[in-house]
Write a structure and sequence with these properties.
333 residues, alpha/beta, four-stranded antiparallel β-sheet, 8 helices
Length: 333
């Protein structure tokens, strides 16, 4: 690595750390500051400020949530340490074996816990030696409930303030008849133009869970750089707008995406899993889009679709299955 690259990386890390130190104890920071945090510092901020509150909310609102943790020998601290809540909650995908495996990874002296689909142990080599150690096995919350013939909606949005406006606030599991109720407000990061740097690279890639992205606007050419892509899980993404957008590699899982407006855009390799999707897609090109599970009901007009695969398990109209073909769409499905 040349000295200019080293200096650039050092300055970038110093700036990232300075921003984190500035807002780490602020429970309601500026939206722009949240977007400006690197993924690592963004997760650290959430560990300090809203993941504990969210898990405490689940204890009181989700069916048998405390019992699930006890039965699987999980604690809030252990879950938060991984920096990801989704693997502990959602049903395990594409596997008859529903067990999940908590794994410790040691890479260049740095340790982290993560959830794996298979039991992993020993050493791996990815340029550097990585050591993997099996810690524990467990079932996700929804799979555990299914074993007991029970169900629970996790992203249950039943209260909003200023819906459809930039300052929209979103609450989950809110008891609107109980003024003493301790509801949970999703972290607000929408209602703005998604920030990019001078090169058109998204500032910055993140894994977003339980975030309010309502009203987020995307436009121009959006690229992903070395600071990661963008993925959303259990997020409120209603009233998002994409105009004159050229963007690849965006993922949504378990999200509410109602009234999504896409126009005059080129969309490629977007993936939707178990989402509720409605809106208007107009005068746009879609390439290699996957919609699996959930509900899919947008109006699609004057669009070109190539490799557009929709497998809606709970469709409003008709499920559509389109693979490896060029299709001109001039009406809704």
């Amino acid at each position: 690595m040349n000295k200019f690259r080293e200096a650039f990386l050092a300055e970038r890390e110093n700036n990232a750390k300075a921003l984190f130190e500035k807002i780490k104890n602020n429970t309601s920071p500026n939206i722009a500051d949240l977007w400006a945090l690197t993924e690592e510092y963004f997760i650290e901020w959430r560990k300090l400020n809203d993941f504990p509150k969210l898990l405490n909310h689940f204890d009181s609102k989700l069916l048998l949530f405390k019992e699930w943790k006890q039965d699987n020998k999980l604690t809030d601290e252990l879950i938060i340490t991984t920096g990801e809540l989704t693997p502990f909650l959602e049903q395990k995908k594409l596997s008859k074996n529903k067990k999940l495996y908590l794994t410790k990874q040691v890479n260049d002296g740095k340790k982290r816990l993560f959830v794996a689909y298979t039991k992993q142990e020993g050493k791996r080599y990815f340029g550097k030696e990585v050591t993997l150690e099996f810690v524990a096995e467990f079932y996700s919350y929804l799979d555990w409930l299914k074993q007991r013939n029970k169900k629970q909606e996790i992203l249950y949005i039943n209260s909003r303030n200023a819906p459809g406006f930039d300052n929209e606030r979103v609450f989950i599991h809110n008891d609107i008849y109980d003024t003493t109720n301790s509801d949970f407000e999703l972290l607000k990061m929408g209602g703005i133009e998604a920030p990019k740097d001078g090169y058109g690279i998204l500032l910055r890639g993140k894994r977003l869970e339980f975030v309010n992205l309502c009203g987020l606007r995307l436009s121009g050419e959006v690229l992903f750089g070395e600071e990661g892509n963008l993925s959303c899980s259990f997020c409120a993404c209603d009233n998002m707008k994409a105009e004159n957008l050229k963007m690849s590699l965006l993922e949504f899982e378990n999200c509410s995406i109602m009234n999504l407006k896409i126009s005059n855009s080129k969309i490629q390799q977007w993936r939707f899993y178990n989402c509720h999707i409605s809106g208007d897609f107009m005068h746009s090109q879609f390439r290699h889009i996957t919609v699996h599970n959930g509900q899919f009901n947008p109006v699609i007009k004057d669009c070109t679709l190539f490799g557009f695969e929709v497998e809606a398990m709970v469709p409003y109209n008709n499920s559509i299955y389109i693979k490896d073909e060029l299709l001109e769409c001039n009406s809704s499905f």
